[in-house]
Design brief:
Elements (H helix, E strand, L loop, with lengths): L7 E5 L4 H12 L3 E6 L4 H6 L5 E4 L5 H15 L3 E4 L14 H29 L3 E5 L12 H21 L5 E7 L5 H6 L2 H9 L9 H12 L10 E4 L7
Parallel strand pairs: 1-2, 1-4, 2-3, 4-5, 5-6, 6-7
Helix pairs in contact: 1-8, 3-4, 4-5
């Protein structure tokens, strides 16, 4: 997929399992990373090859998003944006609170829009900007107890298509990735034991996704070889949604 030497990547949710895998994959290909998370990513910055920066940001705060993205863009530039941060709060539709609904949509849908909007001037300057939004199979098929989460991810897929259409004239591609459950420590807390085995049995390939597989999908969508691909949702769910 070629080298990412000299390309500046803004990665949200960098401290999580998928975020870490993406940071490792892009840094291995020569990219420079602005690692953004509500948690401290200094340790990750220090162990990755190359020169990278750590940024602490609460994606609930719209003003902080604009300020942080502008600071990253003005000081480092932004060639690639990966909206990876997400929140999974599950429960029956009639039992989820308004606060849970609003928080889920604020992190999973509003924040990617705000980050992308703030990054747009710098992606334009790049001349070959890339945006990848991490959605979910829950955004394309109905999963019980995923009303807030599924609705937010469906909205993110819709946002991906609209931004792709509006921003194509600037040389920017916008795509989404929709994984099944990814084998991260946090995800496996909720998908362990009998529940996890039942879930795997419903996936044709018989297993969950690995973080490195989602990172590889992002590498492809951000590569020069994928310059013609925009507005797409790359489903990485082991065949779950084709049944």
């Amino acid at each position: 997929m070629g080298s990412f030497e000299g390309r500046q990547v803004l990665l949200t949710g960098a401290a999580g399992g998928v975020g870490t895998a993406m940071a490792e994959a892009f840094s291995a290909q020569g990219a420079r990373l602005a690692l953004v998370d509500v948690a401290d990513t200094t340790d990750l910055v220090e162990r990755l090859p190359g020169r990278h920066t750590s940024w602490t940001l609460d994606l609930i705060d719209a003003e902080a998003i604009a300020a942080t993205v502008n600071e990253i863009g003005n000081n480092l530039g932004i060639d690639i944006l990966i909206n990876n941060a997400g929140l999974g709060m599950v429960g029956k539709a009639e039992e989820q609170s308004i606060e849970e609904w609003d928080l889920t949509h604020a992190i999973n849908l509003r924040a990617p829009w705000l980050v992308a909007r703030a990054a747009l001037p710098f992606l334009k300057q790049s001349g070959r900007g890339r945006i990848v939004n991490i959605a979910s199979k829950a955004g394309i098929v109905a999963i019980p107890e995923h009303a807030a989460y599924g609705a937010s991810k469906a909205g993110l897929i819709g946002l991906t298509k609209i931004l792709a259409l509006e921003w194509a004239p600037f040389g920017i591609t916008v795509n989404a990735i929709s994984p099944t459950v990814v084998e991260t420590p946090m995800a496996l807390v909720g998908w362990s034991g009998e529940k996890g085995e039942r879930a795997k049995a419903e996936i044709p390939v018989g297993r969950f996704a690995r973080p490195s597989e989602i990172a590889a999908a992002a590498l492809y969508l951000c590569s020069e070889q994928a310059a013609i691909v925009t507005g797409e949702n790359l489903v990485t769910d082991g065949g779950y949604s084709i049944k």
